[in-house]
Amino acid sequence: MVDYILEISEEKVVTNFLIKEENPFVEEDHFSEPGLIENAAQTCSAIVGQSFFGDGKENVKLIGFITNIKKVSIFEVPKVGEQILTKAELVAKFGNICTMKCSTFCGERLLSEAEINLFIKETNA
Q1: 8, 95, 104, 116: most buried, per Cβ within 10 A?
Q2: What are the E-state strand segments in the chain?
Q3: Close Cβ partners of 58 (under 8 Å, ≥ 6 residues apart)
Q4: Per its UniProt record, what InterPro entries does this chain match (predicted)?
Q5: 4-122, CATH topology level
Q6: 3-class DSSP assignment, residue 93
Q7: In 10 A of CB 31, how many CB atoms?
């Protein structure tokens, strides 16, 4: 649910995503609330996930899980054809587990804010 990573560091990430009609989270021409949460989680996973790459590792396969949603506020859902921008910031990290704060926008409109915990691990699948 991320088209491009626009910025990334060890503490922050910014992504964008175009809402397409065939997306499974589209309901009645709108991107649903669970879709916004999934987009936020995938954006956030880029920060923890990048630690699995480097030192010659290029084809690493990862799996991630939302372990906790501490807070989520949905203010508006975007329509099909709109592009969203999601900004996430690392709050805390312990090994493969992190707490992230993120905000999703469509243009100047704030769509959602969330604080979530993620767990990411390498997989052989």
Answers
A1: 104
A2: 4-8, 12-18, 26-27, 30-31, 62-74, 83-94, 97-106, 109-122
A3: none
A4: ApeP-like_dehydratase, HotDog_dom_sf
A5: Thiol Ester Dehydrase; Chain A (3.10.129)
A6: strand
A7: 26
**Coil, strand, or helix at residue 50?**
helix
Chain-centroid distance of CA 26 in Å reads 17
Residue type, position 109, single letter: R
d(CA 46, CA 4): 11
Structure tokens at 50: 């990048």
- Tokens found for residue 38: 């999934």
Reading the block at residue 89, the tokens are 């910031």
pTM over 0.70: yes
Q: What tokens does 118 get?
A: 């993620």
* Overall average pLDDT of the 22-33 stretch: 96
Confidence of residue 125 (pLDDT cuts 50, 70, 90): low
Tokens 């992190």 identify what position? 98
Query: Does the pLDDT value for residue 3 go beyond 90?
Result: yes
List the beta bridge partners of residue 94: 97
